[in-house]
Design goal:
The structure is a homodimer.
Chain A: H1 4-11, H2 15-22, H3 33-46, H4 52-58, E1 67-73, H5 78-91, E2 100-106, H6 116-119, E3 125-129, H7 133-141, E4 148-151, E5 159-163, H8 165-178, E6 183-189, H9 194-209, E7 213-220, H10 224-237, E8 244-247, H11 250-263, E9 272-277, E10 290-293, H12 296-311, E11 320-323, E12 326-328
Parallel strand pairs in A: 1-2, 1-3, 3-4, 4-5, 5-11, 6-7, 6-8, 8-9, 9-10
Antiparallel strand pairs in A: 10-12
Chain A binds a DNA duplex (16 and 16 nucleotides) through helix 2 and helix 4.
Chain lengths: ~325, ~325
DNA sequence: TTGTACGCGTTATCAC
DNA sequence: GTGATAACGCGTACAA
């Protein structure tokens, strides 16, 4: 709370002196040791905290580069953020210093509590990831005067970067149909996510269209533990298993593989398993997991570019970018 | 580059008007549509980018809270950052709004290129994670006027938060000795890391002290792929395998398990495997991985608290905090 | 060591 | 009704 002016007053010196002392330039400026000490003591008493904004405003020879923030939820989906960031780092203008990047965690469903979206005092634009339905609702209803890009969500109001999740669901179903599956099942994480809903919808409608039977829609939490326990109880309880299970989350599929091992269900012979995202680990499970590759890295770069274009006012109306996902066949399917 | 004053001049209006238009308050302030349009056009021509610092400085009824930054490398170790952040979120004063948290990626070995450490124009303090030897060197030599805490590194100059990595290495060796192992091996990621070096050192010296034989020190990159390929070539080439292999990285251990499966080496019967970190996935490999639990969450909170204390000048000399890691026995060891 | 102009957006006050 | 003016926030750095 205290400013250097208050310190100056209490210590009986000028603001210049305080500034020098506090920045370790007292030697260069030949401030006396006594004065220095006095200033330091008062600063401590007053709990001085330098104002970053003021400092920065003054030093603004630092060329003005846009500050962009990634709003990401701090939950189990954290694994994808590393791919997102690596995508940005490797393939964008980040390394040329064309923008500054911040990551700001937020709690799922509580986007409305992120003050800086209103005040505009933190960043020039934001990429919002993992927005829940409430969060989207909030965004649609509120008039934010900050450039935004939504990652993996749809909106008419803002630019978006997506994969066609319905198509993904459909393609997986078609693949299973080609492989001769008749009875299938799907496992859905209990998170509020448009993308997940669309994958489910696309899958179920294609299953129906193709004349297959969907035996189960199972739900549990997003993690390995969720996949593990949902499959354990499925296997224990029911006689009839599908021939394949599509997990809308890789960690869940990983957990499921262990459950199968423990209960003597052979993957892929007794049960085939397909995941979603292509997390790093999935190539090294036993057996390696067949999964849908989500082009996170490319989408990350696209999100940043969209946002920069919006900030620079090269883009005046919202744009929707659509990417394609791709089924990676590994050993957990036949 | 352009300021609202320049826009005002070019558009032939006052700065107040420009500000109102740019903030969507033109209605409320009853600015004529023509003026509004003129301002908007000029702003676009000039490529106006609002100065976040100026904005923020003005709005500083926003109570001053310290801004702290986590400097984290954007490499494979990304999995740990999610645990780090979750630790902060769940157990610290973050949720009370006592500080603002930013994450700033940096490239390993290039900490010296992080300008804001010099200028002090971004944050009130920083937690530095994954510093390489060069980075540490840089920190020791340079006089940064910014409060710092080093995560998982030692320093006399700055406060640090660590686990006793030598002790970890020693304890693993002792456990193996108790279990009757005679011939062991260790796999080391090829990253520059004090913590890794200490674990290795502690392990090797204890192995020697206890009269066991260390057959291999294998090195490859930090990832699943690294562990996979190093073990594949080990098994293919050599006749004599150790009875246990200690991996100083969980992902490597995960990759190794798959390599073993593929080559018919049974885990743990033919070869026992121990990892390090207790990544989320390790509880769900097949078999579940015995690993060293790194108390990332607790260390994260401690780092934040140390840093806040330093920023608030409650702490005037560097403090070193030491945590204990813990061996989690699962099924990849007998 | 001190005094003070400066950086830039916001907003309350004042004027036409 | 519309719009201009100026004070303000706070740390920095240069002239005195």
């Amino acid at each position: 709370m205290a400013t250097i002016r208050e310190i100056a007053e209490k210590a009986g010196v000028s603001v210049g002196t305080v500034s020098f002392v506090l920045n370790g330039k007292s030697e260069k400026m030949r401030i006396s040791a006594a004065t220095k000490e006095r200033v330091l003591v008062v600063a401590r008493e007053l709990g001085y905290l330098p104002s970053i904004s003021a400092r920065r405003l003054r030093n603004s020879e630092e060329k003005q580069t846009p500050i962009i923030t990634i709003l990401w939820t701090l939950d189990a989906r954290a694994s994808l953020i590393s791919r997102f960031l690596q995508g940005i780092q490797k393939k964008s203008s980040f390394k040329d210093g064309m923008f500054e990047l911040l990551i700001q965690p937020y709690e799922n469903g509580k986007l409305n509590e992120v003050e800086s979206l209103h005040t505009g005092t933190r960043f020039n634009g934001a990429i919002i990831a993992n927005a829940s339905e409430e969060d989207l609702d909030y965004l649609e209803k509120t008039n934010l005067n900050v450039p935004l890009v939504l990652y993996q969500r749809y909106s008419k109001k803002y630019s978006t970067v997506n994969v066609d999740s319905k198509l993904t669901g459909r393609e997986v179903a078609e693949y299973l149909f080609e492989k001769g599956h008749k009875k299938v099942g799907i496992v859905v994480p209990t998170i509020s996510s448009q993308a997940v809903d669309y994958r489910l919808e696309g899958f179920l409608s294609a299953v129906k269209d193709l004349g297959m039977e969907n035996l189960y829609i199972l739900r549990d939490n997003f993690t390995e533990q969720g996949g593990y326990s949902v499959i354990k109880s499925l296997i224990k309880k029911s006689k009839k298993l599908p021939t394949v299970l599509f997990f809308l989350s890789d960690p869940m599929a990983v957990g499921a593989i262990l459950a199968c091992h423990e209960l003597g269900v052979r993957v892929p012979d007794d049960l085939e398993i397909i995941g979603h995202d292509n997390d790093d680990q999935t190539a090294y499970t036993f057996p390696p997991l067949t999964t849908v590759h989500l082009p996170v890295e490319e989408m990350a770069v696209a999100s940043v570019n969209q946002l920069l274009d919006t900030i620079n006012q090269r883009l005046t109306t919202p744009v929707s970018l659509q990417f394609r996902s791709e089924l990676l066949i590994r050993k957990s399917t036949k």
